[in-house]
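User: Show me sequence and structure for the first protein, then do the same for the second.

Assistant: Starting with the first protein.
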Amino acid sequence: MFCLWAEPIAGAPAQKPIYRLWWDAFDLEVKGERRHWSEDGGFMIAQTSYQGIHRGPFLNYSPTGGPSICHSRSLHRFAMV
């Protein structure tokens, strides 16, 4: 298992180029699997899987036409502004 980004990615402007990289490389279907909420409702951990076909370049990898499956966990903080 590896992570391409070692630092947290906060906010839509920071996430947009990362998601664009994925969507351009893989023909993805996103499946939300589970959500785990903190007792106070301030945090949620989302378990998600991304399944698709490697159709475009991704980082230094040329398209293979093979299947791609990625399981992820993400932590979301909800704050009142």
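Switching to the second protein now.
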Amino acid sequence: MAELSVPLVSWSSLAAFLVTALFIYIAARIVIDRSGVIAALLTALVANLLAALVLQVVDNGTLAIILAVVVWALVAALFYRTSWLKGAVIGLVAWVLWLITIWVIGRI
């Protein structure tokens, strides 16, 4: 009997997640001069999931993007225990780098 093998995560999604975590780590180092790998991984996981949820739920493209950026900022501010503004900078930088990463991986 043949086994049905369905991957839960594609390689490109895993690569995008790890690269995003790296970008969050770098952005946090630059903006608040502190970061940890675990905090970056958790921030990337939660921010990616919530941003994807927002993009799926909100019909308006512009509004969805704005809300996704706000979600990134909130998640970054919460995980790094920093101000809203610094969280927004970390979140915005990481989110833009995430979009670039997804675009590049999609071209491969």
